[in-house]
From TrEMBL:
This is Zinc metallochaperone AztD. The keyword Signal applies. InterPro entries: AztD-like, Quino_amine_DH_bsu. Residues 1-27 form the signal peptide. The keyword Calcium does not apply. It comes from the Bacteria. Keywords: Plasmid, Signal.
Amino acid sequence: MGLSLNRNRLKAAVAATLVFATQGAKADDHETAEAWRLFVADHTQPVVRAIDFSDGKELARYDLKGYAALTASASGQTVFATQSDHDIAYVIKTGVEFSDHGEHRDLDISDTALLPVTFEGKRPFHVVPHDDHAILFYDRGGKADIIDEAALLEGKAEVRTVDTIKPHHGVAVTMGRFVLVSVPNTEVETKPDELPPRIGLRVIDEKGEQVGEVAKCTDLHGEATSARLVAFGCKEGVLVARPSGVDSPKLQMLPYPTDFPRAHTGTLLGGKAMQFFLGNYGEDKVVLIDPDAEQPYRLIELPTRRVDFLLDPATPRNAYIMTEDGDLHVLDVIKGEIIRKAKITEPYSKDGHWRDPRPRLAVADGQIAITDPRHSLVRVIDAETLKETRTIAVEGQPFSIVAVGGSGASH
């Protein structure tokens, strides 16, 4: 199968991004400032640590009710600490704020803080950051909250709640005035401690009313946004939602190629500067998806099972994949090839519980920060050479990690 991503279109997008970045760095009458911060949750202790990436010093420690999954907002001004086992989500102010001024952007740096607003409901799980808000889905609560970030930063909660028909492990994503929401199977009988399977996706308007028919998407799991498209992983393929002006979004299923091995996508990442998606395909493969290509899929085999992966927002053609043998792989999304790899940690087997402590990845200032919970470290890896440049000691078992920051003009 030929390369599924359109090389010319993506190369042009990369060039445009680099030009924009160069132009945006010009602020002749201002000084340039830079700040990068890591937020690291412990695997067993109910704590999140804010760390200055430049020197590895702990800026603050926030005590929680339980283990937290971390999700940074689209702006990077807030981080959601979702404690599913304790039916609550906290929000941390990162203290990193950018404001756009056309030819440059300003950077304001302040202290991190635990915001006074919490969100309670039965088993909050997926947090989807989008523009100026985030959507928090409650698996056992039968609802999803659309949360305004500006209000959060003022210590207030402005929330629009969406009904999800019936409790299920699902997701909700906004698209203009519409919301895309997973659909549970309401006809199957489940045990009291079980949730029903997902069978599709529906579109609802600002009144909460369904628009059109439910689009089939068996075992819907995983979503991502790229450019103006949203993609969802299904057993049949990847379901893509496209905006359609004032009309409701158009939903299109991209079936998996018939010559692919039997598997499906359940985790998706979306390109920021280029329109494409990267998803898992089973446990030991990943797939590049270009929804506009004649052949949308490009399959890449890994030597062992995937532990974590992410896209580099500053280097759009790079994706980083950590496998259970302790190797870090760099995937060139334009070539569709693994272009280099290096041994980073000891092996971390995928066998066992899905939430056992294993490495997690973040990107900060051209470097890859990798948690190594077995050794109480965050390992800092140069993205070009894949050499370890330093380590950051973190008490306990550092696990979930996000990075926020960048450079801008300072007044």
